[in-house]
Design goal:
The structure holds two protein chains of two kinds. Chain A is mainly alpha-helical. Chain A is built from eight helices and no strands. The longest helix of chain A has 25 residues. The mean pLDDT of chain B is about 90. The chains are: A mainly alpha, B mainly alpha.
Chain lengths: ~190, ~140
């Protein structure tokens, strides 16, 4: 049953990805990206990663969709045809994809219990989380306590992103033509 | 923005529940899925939804731009400050064990404090980015 659900979700993900690549209307692209995020959240729930699924659903499908729509107000809503042939980018993408798939061949089988990643620090966290931190959700205790420095970095990244957007978008408008040039930049990340 | 009555009424009815859910995700994150990041995004989503339906000026009456822009660094400062307090009480930076009479309680308080910092920075950053885009488009 789980295999069936995963296959259906992954097939739908592939279909949505191709649709995003072929869609020229950017409103359509934004809607499809939202669908992609919800599918991805479902995949993560199948993988029992509920914390990540919740983040994907709220950030990927929720807030980013609104930000994309807000950015579309500042730009044209139709993607221009590529100026060059798509052969080279396609070749690079297929090449990189093939290398990544080749890299997965050496990985231990999916879901196996004695994979190296489950042998290192994971058992220590699982055993000691409640005893040492009184937090039952090991994801929370790893994020906030055992890996507190990483989370501090992530918070700083969010802070920097907000500052960057504000600096780019809230600067004083000069002439009309200049302002449009600036708003193109704001949409880039 | 002149919308139909239905989205206005529905949004007004759902806003308190969104805020309640955000608080649940924040404080229940130690037991179930969730935490400061997810709760921050949900809380920001509430303000953003309100702004989308009622207009940005109305949203700014609830949470002013001034306040939002001060909250973005405040969250990082709460996080950094928790680490510094742990240091002043004799531990290493971000070693919450020194925040209370015994290690596990200190860890629990420390985790709550830094999750609060994450919540403040994430929610205010999302709202600030939303305000910046909408102001630019006008």
């Amino acid at each position: 049953m789980e295999t069936l659900i995963s296959s259906v979700l992954l097939t739908l993900l592939a279909v949505v990805t191709v649709a995003i690549a072929r869609q020229r209307n950017l409103f359509g692209v934004v809607a499809l990206t939202g669908i992609y995020s919800f599918l991805m959240a479902s995949v993560l729930i199948v993988l029992d990663a509920v914390d990540v699924a919740m983040t994907e659903a709220s950030v990927g499908a929720g807030v980013s969709t609104v930000f994309f729509l807000a950015a579309l107000q500042l730009t044209r809503s139709r993607e221009q045809r590529p100026a060059h042939s798509v052969a080279l980018p396609l070749l690079v993408s297929v090449g990189v994809g093939a290398v990544l798939v080749w890299g997965t061949i050496d990985l231990p089988p999916f879901g196996i219990a004695d994979a190296p990643i489950h042998q290192h620090v994971a058992p220590v966290y699982l055993e000691n989380s409640v005893k040492e931190t009184m937090v039952a959700n090991v994801v929370a205790s790893v994020l906030a306590s055992y890996r507190g420095f990483d989370t501090l970095g992530e918070t700083a990244v969010v802070f920097t992103a907000a500052m960057g957007v504000m600096l780019l978008l809230r600067g004083r408008r000069r002439t009309r033509g200049r302002a449009e040039g600036n708003s193109d930049k704001g949409e880039a990340p | 923005m002149n919308f139909d009555v239905i989205p206005r009424v529905v949004v007004k009815l759902t806003l308190p529940f969104m805020l309640l859910f955000a608080l649940y995700v924040q404080f229940h994150g130690e037991v179930g899925p969730g935490g400061g990041f997810q709760a921050g995004v949900i809380a920001a989503g509430m303000i953003i939804l309100y702004g989308l339906v009622f207009g940005i000026e109305q949203a700014k009456q609830i949470v002013s731009q001034r306040l939002v822009e001060r909250l973005v660094p405040l969250g990082v400062l709460i996080y950094v400050g928790t680490g510094l307090v742990a240091m002043l009480l004799g531990g290493n930076y971000l070693d919450y064990s020194y925040l209370a009479h015994d290690g596990p309680h200190g860890q629990e308080y420390g985790i709550m404090a830094i999750e609060l910092g994450v919540l403040v920075t994430v929610s205010s950053s999302m709202v600030a980015i939303f305000y910046a885009f909408v102001d630019r488009a006008r």
